[in-house]
Write a structure and sequence with these properties.
alpha/beta; Beta-Lactamase; 19 strands; 5-stranded parallel sheet; 440 residues; Alpha-Beta Plaits; Rossmann fold; 3 domains; 7-stranded antiparallel sheet; single chain
Length: 440
């Protein structure tokens, strides 16, 4: 089944090259519709058949709008359509800004070929589909939680239980007959999830303050048989017709699923779905923290940018399922080669980044790279067959090769290009003069 791509680019030659690359993709096909102006793209995205557009590929150098203004205009026109930015190296900062503001990813035109563009587009569409599925899962969980009946317990002014409903009976383990007349603390045992100390009595607070109060966060209900569940609740005073306070009522519900889902979503937002390694966002946070620490303590750190050599051949000859298993195997070996204080991240596709949070000398990063090269080159047993692959490694060292996360990652990436051009299956340190020649 073909997927429709709206290409927004001003140059006919560029549009022709992109169309040829996408329509001829082996794992496609893609059907490309080309417009040359931002306004024409917005009209297409807002007009009939707009729901058939599955992705937008855009060069932000357009005749009617430029740069981030062009992206913002397109994004407003189709917030639910994933957008891939085509950027020149000199405009990479604008592309990164577009990603921060809603684009799925960007691709440098200097590295554009018949493989990288379809690969990037497939990855973007897969990420978008997973994000949509996760959103729907969250919505379903929320609806389910809202449909569950709340537990209700009431007490008199002395704090003795006067009523439990069926849900409260189930959650506390006490029947109404057993609980009535007992002290609330005996029936409703609530502790702080972190300190394990008894939580403040919400009913006592409601009576004392004569208003509705909420239970403090992270509270856990211990059922009569010892089973624990995370809960949220509110407590309110009960008044008679004359306005006199006669007791209080607490309404609570199990939020274990919601908290678990929240933790799961937080995890997925920071980790790669295939390898479960930290993703680009989490790596950037850790790298920024590591640079701050290195700056304070006057130490060095190193960033290793890895790319699997000829990974496309594995996908083409063995299939994507085997390719995914290979990436998982590589990820496990990379993690096994570094310290717990270091970070192995998957950037996407067949690219990995290793953050060595502290190195005594720059040469130590080269030794670490050789260790990674050896580990990956050992045969990978997948589907009872051995796969032989290698990686190329580019190395950037703080502070010499970059004082910021972005600069250091760029230096390591440029060093990786040198490693690729020097026969692959080797490591290269960043060299400023070589970088100037490469980009000059």
């Amino acid at each position: 089944m073909s997927r429709n791509v709206l290409l927004v680019a001003s140059a006919p030659a560029e549009a022709k090259a992109v169309r040829r690359s996408l329509e001829g993709a082996g794992d496609g096909p893609f059907k490309v519709e080309w417009v040359s102006r931002c306004d024409d793209a917005c009209s297409r995205l807002g007009g009939p058949g707009r729901d058939k557009i599955t992705a937008v590929v855009v060069d932000l150098t357009l005749p009617d709008r430029q740069g981030i203004e062009a992206f913002d205009t397109l994004f407003r026109a189709a917030r639910h359509v994933p957008i891939l930015i085509l950027s020149r190296l000199r405009d990479e900062d604008v592309a990164r800004l577009a990603v921060q503001r809603g684009a799925q990813d960007y691709l440098l035109e200097e590295r554009l070929d018949g493989y990288s563009l379809p690969k990037a587009l497939h990855s973007m569409l897969d990420r978008s589909a997973r994000a949509e599925a996760l959103f729907l899962e969250s919505e379903r969980a929320q609806i389910t939680l809202n449909s569950i009946g709340d537990a209700v317990i009431s007490t008199d002014l002395g704090g003795n239980v006067t009523y439990l409903n069926a849900v409260a009976e189930s959650m506390t383990g006490w029947s109404r007959q057993e609980a009535c007349g007992r002290r609330l603390q005996e029936v409703l045992q609530i502790v702080d999830g972190d300190s394990r100390k008894p939580a403040l009595n919400p009913l006592a607070m409601a009576v004392l303050q004569n208003r509705t109060v909420a239970l403090s966060a992270n509270c856990v209900l211990i059922r009569r048989d010892g089973y624990e569940s995370a809960i949220e609740d509110t407590a309110a005073p009960i008044h008679d017709q004359g306005g006199l306070m006669t007791g209080a009522v607490i309404v609570f519900h199990d939020v274990s699923v919601a908290r678990a889902l929240s933790l799961k979503m937080s995890y997925l937002a920071q980790h790669d779905f295939l390898t479960e390694l930290p993703n680009r966002m989490l790596l950037n946070d850790r790298l920024t923290q590591a640079i701050a620490s290195a700056q304070r303590h006057k130490t060095l750190l190193a960033l290793l940018f890895l790319d699997v050599d000829d990974f496309k051949h594995v996908n083409d000859s063995r299939g994507h399922a085997v390719g995914d298993q290979l990436l998982q195997s590589i990820a496990r070996r990379l993690v096994a080669c570094v310290r717990e204080s270091d970070t192995v991240s998957r950037q996407g596709g067949d690219e990995f980044v290793v953050l060595l949070s502290e190195v005594a000398r720059a040469q130590d990063a080269g030794l670490a790279a050789d260790k990674l090269l050896a580990a990956v080159s050992t045969p990978h047993s997948i589907d009872q067959k051995d796969l032989h692959v290698t990686v190329s490694v580019g190395i950037g060292v703080y502070p010499a090769d970059g004082a910021s996360a972005e600069a250091l990652l760029k230096s390591a990436d440029l060093a990786l290009v040198r490693a690729k051009t020097r026969g692959r299956s080797n490591h290269q340190f960043f060299e400023r003069d070589a970088s100037v020649r490469a980009t000059g």
